[in-house]
């Protein structure tokens, strides 16, 4: 594959402009930073110097991207509405910003044939400097016996009020040695806070409190909380009560049916 070396800001600038107004943040990283944390079975099969970009959703994604997407009836009742919206935003931005480039776009919910995730979102968030990944191994003298505790990333501005959505891998684009690895901001240096975080995330994640482990600059709106605290199987019914209906895939012209609800 032909590769060329770029200045990172030249690649990220247009994508940042496009996605930030929709409530997303982007963080560039080198594939090698990610692979160096993982066993070979979880590696991305690209050279270490290849460019990747992590995409996060912030609290405003719901109002800036999701509700408008639903209003435009971009949604078809086949798979998760948020996933469809994120995919729509990311693929439109990628095709506008990199029309010539072959970009491998991986979403957080996608699995490989081996049933492993297509990328480990939290490891990517940590190595790109987006959000520190607090893991069981980051707590000395663990109080949980042998119990497995899942780790969680904390964003320096949004605490836990964000989600990691996608990784874009530019196999043909390498970045030079001027791109140095950022250090993820450690917002919870103390053992006690780390224990509190991991316990809240593992034992009480449904009450949202782990998200407030540091004071966030913004949280999800009440409407967004209503949406995410509704069971996935009942979200379509909730969207209907908000006046949103999925697009019928057999519709020839969506304007006709929009008029029916006019
Ligand atoms: C499978 C999955 C689950 C499973 C299993 C959880 C797990 N962590 O394994 C279940 C269904 C239980 C689950 C539940 C939830 N999940 Co979940 N889940 C995932 C998913 C799809 C894959 C995680 C996975 O399989 N990891 C594999 C394991 C082996 O990875 P690991 O433990 O990190 O181990 C690696 C690292 O330790 C690395 N490593 C080793 N040393 C070092 C050192 C450093 C410094 C670093 C960086 C890495 C590193 O090597 C290990 C692999 O060899 C991710 C999305 C994604 N694509 O990543 C979301 C994700 C982890 N889930 C998420 C959330 C929010 C939840 C829930 C709260 C529900 C929800 N969606 O609201 C609950 C709460 C968890 C709980 N209390 O049980 C978020 C977490 C966000 C955050 N702030 O961290 C993610 C990232 C999804 C997202 N879109 O944002 N989840």
From TrEMBL:
GO biological process, one term: cobalamin metabolic process
Family stated for the protein in its record: Belongs to the MMACHC family.
Reaction catalysis annotation: apo-[alkylcobalamin reductase] + an R-cob(III)alamin + glutathione = cob(I)alamin-[alkylcobalamin reductase] + an S-substituted glutathione + H(+); apo-[alkylcobalamin reductase] + adenosylcob(III)alamin + glutathione = S-adenosylglutathione + cob(I)alamin-[alkylcobalamin reductase] + H(+); apo-[alkylcobalamin reductase] + methylcob(III)alamin + glutathione = S-methyl glutathione + cob(I)alamin-[alkylcobalamin reductase] + H(+); 2 cob(II)alamin-[cyanocobalamin reductase] + 2 hydrogen cyanide + NADP(+) = 2 cyanocob(III)alamin + 2 apo-[cyanocobalamin reductase] + NADPH + H(+)
Keywords: Cobalamin, Cobalt, Cytoplasm, FAD, Flavoprotein, FMN, NADP, Oxidoreductase
Protein name: Cyanocobalamin reductase / alkylcobalamin dealkylase
First-listed, main subcellular location of the protein, grouped into a coarse class: cytoplasm
GO cellular component: cytoplasm
Swiss-Prot/TrEMBL cofactor(s): FAD; FMN
GO function terms (MF aspect): cobalamin binding; cyanocobalamin reductase (cyanide-eliminating) (NADP+) activity; demethylase activity; FAD binding
Subcellular location: Cytoplasm
């Amino acid at each position: 594959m032909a590769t060329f070396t770029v200045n990172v800001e030249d690649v990220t600038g247009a994508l940042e402009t496009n996605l930030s107004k929709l409530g997303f943040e982007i963080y560039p990283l080198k594939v090698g930073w990610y692979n160096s944390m993982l066993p070979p079975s979880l590696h991305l099969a690209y050279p270490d110097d290849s460019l990747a970009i992590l995409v996060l959703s912030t609290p405003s994604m719901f109002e800036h991207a999701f509700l408008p997407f639903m209003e435009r009836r971009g949604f078809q009742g086949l798979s998760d509405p948020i996933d469809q919206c994120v995919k729509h935003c990311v693929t439109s931005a990628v095709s506008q910003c990199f029309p010539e480039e072959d970009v491998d776009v991986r979403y957080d919910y996608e699995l490989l044939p081996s049933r492993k995730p297509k990328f480990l979102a939290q490891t990517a968030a940590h190595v790109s400097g987006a959000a520190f990944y607090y893991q069981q191994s980051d707590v000395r003298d663990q109080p949980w016996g042998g119990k497995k505790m899942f780790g969680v990333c904390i964003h320096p501005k949004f605490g836990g009020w964000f989600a990691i959505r996608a990784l874009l891998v530019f196999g043909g684009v390498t970045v030079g040695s001027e791109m140095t690895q950022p250090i993820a901001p450690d917002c919870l240096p103390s053992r006690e806070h780390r224990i509190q975080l991991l316990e809240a995330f593992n034992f009480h994640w449904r009450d949202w409190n782990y998200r407030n482990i540091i004071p966030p600059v913004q949280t999800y709106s009440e409407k967004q909380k209503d949406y995410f605290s509704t069971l996935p199987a009942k979200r379509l019914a909730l969207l209907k009560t908000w006046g949103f209906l999925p697009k019928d895939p057999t519709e020839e012209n969506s304007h006709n049916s929009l008029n029916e609800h006019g």
